[in-house]
Amino acid sequence: MLLNKKHVYLLFFSIILISTAMHFKHFNKELIGIHVWRQTQTQSTITNFYEEDMNIFNPHRNERGNTDGIFRMEFPLLQWLVACTYKVFGNSIAITRVFMFVIGLLSVAGMYKLIKNMFNNTTIAIIAAWAFNFSPSFYYYTINPIPDNLSLCTAIWGLTLFIKWLSTSKNYLLYLSALFFSIATLCKLPFAVYFSFPLSYLFFNYLKNKQIKTLLLNSFPFLMALLIPAIWYYKVIPTWHGNGVVQGVFDNNPGGSQLVDYLQHNLISTLPELLLNYASLPFFVLGLYFIIKYKAYQHKLFLPFVVLSSLVLFYFFFEINMIAKIHDYYLFPFYPLLFIIVSYGIYNLLKLNNKIATAFVYIALLVLPFTCYLRMKNRWNIESPGFNSDLLKYKNELRNAVPSNALCIVGKDESRFISFYYIDKKGWSFASDSLTKEDIESKIKKGAQYLYSDSKQIDSQFVALNHIDRLILEKGSIKVFKLK
Length: 484
Hints:
- It is built from 22 helices and 5 strands.
- A hairpin with a 2-residue loop joins strand 4 and strand 5.
- With 484 residues, the chain is mainly alpha-helical.
- The longest helix has 27 residues, at 93-119.
């Protein structure tokens, strides 16, 4: 069944409407759930841009002691753009979530255009967009503040524009594609692997035609675009002390059985359940089958996709120690590849013109939103926010307990971001139930005025050292002390 333009617009509007309805009750919710650590880190940078310094090169963190708190990791374009919207609409978590949601919709539109350019078939393209939109992990993260969302969006559009250039030879598409790949990499380093797609295509084309001038001219925008994130990360990576992402699988040297366990979990659980959606899994498996059956490996885009896929897999195995069983957002670089295969499976099923196969496709597509919702409905559970729930419950009282510009010692918080985000203060954090006498006194000498603590052992240490002036506030498990 071929859909006309009116039906395509109607289906895309349905994607927006259904996705909005599924997310609607969460737009005003505070940051909670899986990977709230990364979310609060991103949101704190957004807030600090808005409140302190809009210089995009100077992202600030809250866990800063008495320093300026400048801490550069990924290029903070997403954080800065959200802060710009705050200048217009004000500081609101709902604004952040809506901004991220719009980026998600642009990713879905990009997937539509990507598949349309590949298959020249609007029906398969809108079906692919539908399937991608109801990937459970994509559904969850698409309203959460993580820079991976912008990287995914721009990587999809980078692929789309390059493939469009192949059929039109309009050079502005080539430069736009390079720009989008550069943004994707700046915002999240692993997306550097996406440069391999256009560069490998151009190289393979050179091997056929032996036109070195064409190779150099067409590769130039991508090499220049790759240079920009290369300079940024060359400057900032040396400042990432103790960051396991840089060391990858060599960090902590996990045993072979541990790595096999991680691999098995991601293959058996994360891939079908979170990335694809169980209702899309049959199409993914059939897509792999049809690639072999119909010799799709003879297509001119196949080898560049093999190169890209190989590098994405290399990234996965290099970072498997960090990805473990929980960091599913690290797997965003897989999304375009997975749903191209899903689309190819659907495309060939519908080509069979078999009533049973066609019915199976459309029933599975209708099931997708339900299986997606059921898998993710507990990720915004305020009763189990993923941290000490008293921070969420008494957020306003904790924020108002001391002056906004007071330097504080805060914990116990292994993340070093969550507690600071909820109390909206700056200072020092502690992760364990003990601090040395020298540590405590050093922080006080540097300007620490208050202590936020949910650790009885830490409270006792401060009392024993005679550094507590008085108890200001006690809410649930959290106490706020004035320091001498």
